[in-house]
Amino acid sequence: MAKPVTTFTCQECGATHKKWAGRCDACGAWNTIVEEAPLSQGPGRGLGAAKGKTVPLSALSTHEPPPPRAESGMTEFDRVLGGGLVPGSAILVGGDPGIGKSTLLLQAAAAFANRGQQAIYISGEEASAQVRMRAQRLGLAEAPVRLGAETALRDILTTLDAERPDIAIIDSIQTLWSDTVEAAPGSVSQVRASAHELVTFAKKRGVAVVIVGHVTKEGQIAGPRVVEHMVDTVLYFEGERGHQFRILRAVKNRFGPADEIGVFEMTGGGLAEVANPSALFLSERGQPSPGSAVFAGIEGTRPVLTEIQALVAPSTLASPRRTVVGLDSGRVSTILAVLEARCGIPFAGLDVFLNVAGGMRVQEPAADLAIAAALLSAREDSALPADCVTFGEISLSGALRPVAQAENRLKEAQKLGFSHAIIPASSKIEGSRDMRLDRIADLTSFVGEVFGAG
Fold first, then answer.
1. At which positions is motif RadA KNRFG motif (predicted)?
2. The Cα angle at residue 409 between residues 404 and 415, in degrees rounded to 5
């Protein structure tokens, strides 16, 4: 049998190396490479002569009923899960420290328990007394949630196997340790082994397991990316410390639509659901001012209206600043280049600041036209009409390309009182609407019609 090979693994990104080094070549982090023994030795020469059992096969036409779902009563939480919690599913929840992950999951556990589901909350970061204090502050002290504080994976699985709850919440995966792995808690080996055991237990016992994961400085869930592939659903809890809004976003969901969002508001009594996020994001919008544009976007299956704010000012630096919050900085640089190359509007020597109001994060290309409108409005010191929304994708040639679900975007805008929309010329709108639609073919026409000749 071949001698087991010791590997050196980066604790920041999970990359493996043949020998130790002070700096990881994959992510550039210093002093993060740790020597680790392999999880399993495995056979030296294949599987041998022994045969396994035959796997049952079925046709694609085999009809199976949809999986049953347990609803918590928290509409926004159930929406992100795809309509409720599926028994035997594994869910990974990530977010910045202090963003409210434990608060959200404690409220969700209490909501499931109040509806007759047996819920167990295992905390590896806080003592039971601390979790009880949070429950009292949130008014959940009387909820029938079973609470435990443990980090040993073997003891946790033994307890869950004996109790057989409907839902188990593990907070967090970085604090667990398995006695079969010779590595510190939080290391790549421990996180991978703990996640594998929890997912296997969820599938075999039909228990829905919710796992909390820390995030890195880049905003990704810490540990190897294979953990995200193991689970059925990956949720990110987003938000800015200075804003009261929190976004629960599904980036992967085997039982529902991906990119679905749930909107919450942080209050003194915990997280409150926001039924109409568009009205909330636009609630602080005052009189029309230069540099402001309203974007009609789609998040998952729901339309959401957000305000994109821009500020353009003369720069005293050799390299002007480009500060972007809530948007893709690479996409913004591309739009600036298209405005200069195709429309003759330079931004050289100007500082550019862009922000999405309310702490929202917009990633879809349909926001290109709204970003360009906000930049041009700030540069020309000319405000867009207060009742105007816009959306559209900008190509490198300067043409405006249509986007999906234009009908739903306009319907949401009309519901909130907007009567004017600027959209790509080739957008397909079925039926007649009581809205003024300005169809624009390219970015040059947009600059000429909305802001004059530029």
1. 252-256
2. 165
Known binding residues for ATP are 95-102
DSSP secondary structure letters along 121-160: EEESSS-HHHHHHHHHHTT-TTS-EEEEE--BHHHHHHHH
Q: Given the structure tokens 């999405």, which residue do they identify? A: 356
- Contact predicate 387/420, CB 8 Å: yes
Distance CA 323, CA 317 (A): 14
Contact 178, 151 (CB under 8 A): no
Residue spans of the domains in the chain: they are 1-37, 75-275, 280-451
Q: Are the C-beta atoms of 96 and 215 separated by less than 8 Å? A: yes
User: How far apart (Å, rounded) are the C-alpha atoms in residues 14 and 187?
Assistant: 9
Torsion, Cα 309 311 317 320, to 10 degrees, reads: 50
Residues 400 and 425 sit within 8 Å (Cβ to Cβ): yes
Assign domain 280-451 to its CATH architecture.
2-Layer Sandwich (3.30)
The reply to whether omega before 172 is within 30° of 0 (cis) is yes
Which two tokens mark 438?
Answer: 């300005």
CATH 3.40.50.300 fits 75-275, yes or no: yes
- Residue 339: which of 386, 307, 377, 294 has the closest Cα? 377
Show pLDDT as tens, one digit a residue, over the chain (454 residues).
455 567 788 887 778 888 899 998 888 889 888 887 654 444 455 566 666 788 889 888 888 888 889 999 999 999 999 999 999 999 999 988 888 999 999 999 999 999 999 999 999 999 999 999 999 999 999 999 999 999 999 999 999 999 999 999 999 898 999 998 888 888 888 998 999 999 999 999 999 999 998 877 666 666 667 788 899 999 999 887 777 889 999 999 999 888 899 999 988 889 999 888 888 788 767 677 899 999 999 988 889 999 999 999 999 998 999 999 999 999 999 999 999 999 999 999 999 999 998 888 898 999 999 999 999 999 999 999 889 999 999 999 999 999 999 999 999 999 888 999 999 998 888 765 688 999 999 999 999 888 874 4
**Annotated binding residues:** 95-102
> Are domains 75-275 and 280-451 of this chain identical in fold?
no
- Region class of 453: left (phi > 0), else alpha (psi between -120 and 50), else beta: alpha
